[in-house]
Amino acid sequence: MTASSPGSADFGPDLVEVFGPSQSDGGPELIQLLTPEGERVHHPDLDIDFSEEQLRGFHRDMVLTRRIDIEATALQRHGELGIWAQLLGQEAAQIGIGRAVEPQDFVFPTYREHGVAWCRGVDPLKLLGLFRGVSHGDWDPAEFNFGLYTIVIGAQTLHAVGYAMGMQRDGVVGTGEAGRDAAVVAHFGDGASSQGDVNESFVFAASYNAPVVFFCQNNQWAISEPIERQSRIPLYQRALGFGFPGIRVDGNDVLATYAVTQAALQRAREGQGPTFVEAYTYRMGAHTTTDDPTRYRLSTDVETWKLRDPIARLEVYLKRNGWADADWFAQVEAEADDLGARLREGCKAMPDPDPMRIFEKVYADMPPELLTQRDEYAAYLDTFEGAR
């Protein structure tokens, strides 16, 4: 691939067929490598010869991520979490890109990227601590190259582009050195695509040819607003208006999601600039545990999408080809049970945070007025028995 100059709309001959105009000129709109029935299909430009180990790994990741979601939802219902953002049905979209990113890449999540966090090695108990209200996330973004969850809708996309521009200036983009060249992933949903911050990030990314993959999980509901009220065209086609390519992938197909995002990330690392990936999926659960989706969507739609379940289709594929037997599936289920038990016990055992922690990790050298506030607050807390 040949690097294009900032602001250029020349996507290169390889991407004309895959990422760009072909998807707005009557070409295929949905990249898929595994059908809902578990049948393997092939793509002329985005095909990968997956190993049996990779396929089993994808399945295990999705099963364990779903268990995290199920356990967290149950904990919220029992009053152990203040709220929980569900991802039921979106496991393939998250595991696909979560396994496509390289260690040197940096990920900017929203508040629903539990599967991506799992792939980056973040302990799911850290996620529960955030939703329990005893921490702000409590993982080190620099350790996992995975940012803290962002509650402000769309703000993380601007953070991602700024970080990507920093990578350019650090000389870790387009050098041709594997393991050094890096890219950034900006996660957001279909609802966030209507935010000003997101569209501003598109402008900056295109203008500076930033090495960022905009990964939109289009689960078709911005809380209670359907996607057709937000956009008259498929979301991925918006990218062309900003001057970079877009592509739509079956977000319930972990193989296709992996293949598409791997190619987009490599394109970014090589200095080819941003790509918009729309993972077309469906939120089978609620927006959060405070939401009642039965008030605004049809149960028949949910039942239809259950037939496209990302875990079930890969399970069928594995069984059909003899790559996983009953013992292997039982082993994964047992691992999920152990994970669930650890999450339940660990969540309930979380201590309340030390109030004095609010003064930590804000300034490298704390200014005198803040030191005074800290000391006065500590003295105030000491007047309460057991406050610290």
Describe the structure.
Helix content is 43%, strand content 8%. It is α/β, with parallel strands linked by helices and 388 residues long. It folds into 2 domains: 13-348, Rossmann fold, CATH 3.40.50.970; 354-388. The chain has a 5-stranded parallel beta sheet with strand order 1-2-3-7-6, sandwiched between helices. It has a two-stranded antiparallel sheet with strand order 4-5. α2 crosses α3 (91-100), α2 runs parallel beside α13 and α3 (91-100) packs parallel to α4. It is globular. The chain starts with 12 loop residues before the first helix and ends in a 7-residue tail after the last helix. Residues 1-13 and 20-28 have low confidence and may be disordered.
Strand content: 5-15%
Return the structural class. Answer: alpha/beta
What is the percent of helical residues? 40-55%
State the CATH class of the largest domain. Alpha Beta
CATH superfamily of the largest domain: Thiamin diphosphate (ThDP)-binding fold, Pyr/PP domains
**What is the typical, i.e. mean, pLDDT?**
91
Work out the count of structural domains: 2
Uncertain runs are: 1-13, 20-28
Separation, N- and C-terminal Cα atoms: 59 Å
Write the layout of secondary structure elements.
Layout: H1 13-18, H2 52-77, H3 91-100, E1 106-108, H4 114-120, H5 124-132, H6 141-144, H7 155-170, E2 184-189, H8 196-207, E3 212-218, E4 221-222, E5 225-226, H9 238-242, E6 246-250, H10 254-269, E7 275-280, H11 299-306, H12 310-320, H13 326-348, H14 368-381
Parallel strand pairs: 1-2, 2-3, 3-7, 6-7
Antiparallel strand pairs: 4-5
Helix pairs in contact: 2-3, 2-4, 2-12, 2-13, 3-4, 3-10, 7-8
